[in-house]
Recover the amino acids of this structure.
């Protein structure tokens, strides 16, 4: 893929966010411009039905591409769709809801561009982060982090915060084998990168402007844990396949479905 002339590709996935998506994209573009780099923004509607893609019509025509997926598949599918179209030397994503102020991208991109990290990620558990998390959510996050460390031995305290920047080489390596459509996408990203030898993960502090709800959805939490277990078993299968190939025993290849993307807006 030709990446000449583009330093950063930013994917903004969204599903029925309302007019805030336009504000998020505008502010993100200004933050990237302030970083002094060339960039593109790929906004991916995950089957939105609230008319929010229309809010981006005519916005930033030189740098913005809008992709509309025909049905709601999940954040993971939307981000993968954007990743597949990205042309930057660095590729990242930012949630569209505005909880994480887009202005923070300026500093995050500078860390990614200057430090040689494979993945630079926002972490609410960084000591420098400014975020108030209710007890129930904080407790779930800590239990989930412990669960992840035991299962995957990842040196990451917070996989789920919605801003990350990766080297394009990491995206090229993990994208063909990623399958998660929902919020376990973030975990799968780290797990596959680590498994493929891209192990330099750098956490940066974030500021969260909107207050969290006081409760944790049992359904969302259960789905995240179940999806994480599926990632674990797929990882075991990948490693077993590598061992089999190393010993000369062939294993059938499994085709990974690729997301569908719409046209330019």
């Amino acid at each position: 893929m030709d990446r000449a002339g583009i330093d950063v590709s930013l994917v903004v996935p969204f599903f029925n966010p309302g007019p805030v998506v336009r504000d998020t994209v505008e502010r993100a573009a200004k933050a990237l411009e302030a970083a002094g780099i060339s960039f593109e923004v790929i906004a991916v509607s995950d089957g939105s039905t609230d008319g929010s893609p229309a809010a981006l019509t005519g916005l930033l025509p030189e740098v913005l591409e809008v992709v509309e997926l025909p049905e709601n598949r999940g954040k993971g599918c939307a981000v993968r769709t954007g990743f597949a179209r990205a042309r930057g030397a660095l590729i990242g994503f930012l949630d569209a809801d505005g909880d994480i102020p887009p202005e923070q991208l300026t500093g995050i991109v500078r860390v990614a561009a200057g430090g040689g990290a494979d993945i630079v990620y926002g972490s609410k558990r960084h000591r420098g982060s400014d975020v108030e998390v209710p007890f129930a959510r904080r407790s779930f996050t800590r239990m989930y982090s412990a669960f992840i460390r035991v299962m995957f031995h990842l040196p990451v305290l917070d996989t789920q915060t919605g801003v990350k920047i990766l080297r394009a080489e990491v995206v090229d390596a993990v994208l063909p084998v990623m399958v998660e459509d929902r919020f376990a996408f973030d975990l799968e990203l780290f797990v596959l990168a680590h498994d493929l030898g891209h192990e330099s993960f750098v956490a940066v502090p974030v500021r969260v402007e909107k207050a969290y709800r006081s409760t944790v959805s049992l359904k969302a939490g259960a789905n995240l844990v179940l999806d994480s277990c599926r990632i674990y078993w797929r990882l075991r299968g990948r490693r077993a396949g590598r061992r089999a190939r190393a010993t000369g025993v062939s294993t059938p290849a499994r085709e990974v479905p690729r997301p569908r993307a719409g046209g330019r807006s």
